[in-house]
Amino acid sequence: MIKKVDCRGLNCPQPVIHTKKALEEMTQGSIVTIVDNEVAKENVKKFAQKMNAKVEIEEKEGIFYLTITKENGKTSQSSIIFPEKSEHGEFIILIGNDKIGEGSEELGSILMKSYLYTLTEVEPRPDKIIFMNSGVKLTCSSSSLENIKKLEELGVEILSCGTCLDYYGLKQELQVGKISNMYTIVEALNEARKSIVL
Question: Which domains does the chain have, with CATH numbers?
Fold first, then answer.
């Protein structure tokens, strides 16, 4: 029996993540991922191809059925976003804003929430996430708080800039992670093997 992964109504990156989990649970065979928009179809297709799986797509009344076949456990392991961890230095993400990108603030908040959710689902994860400037708002009260707490539970160290918390009057509102200072932040970034700034 072919397993169905129904991702209708789910936003990026959830269709890819659900497909990834389903593929990881099997050694060979097929799954059918069901999506209801072109973007999700393309994202799942590209992911499956990156995993060296065979993909067949059928469309019925605007719904896409992607049959993904994993043969003899030969699909590649994919970290989706991040490289493998090294024994030397840490992988750090510095988040300096509570939104991603320029333009619509609403879209920027949606993208940030989606990014932090995706971090909870991929491996390897960063060793530390440092929040600065308006990014500290995410560790106090935001729609992303649940995802940040999950990252901490998964072993990611969460640090918020104390000066930034003071500036926004949020030091007493911190709900996840620890308060840090510029010296510790600079030292961590200088010693990191890889860093990403958002």
Answer: 3-70 (3.30.110.40), 91-197 (3.40.1260.10)
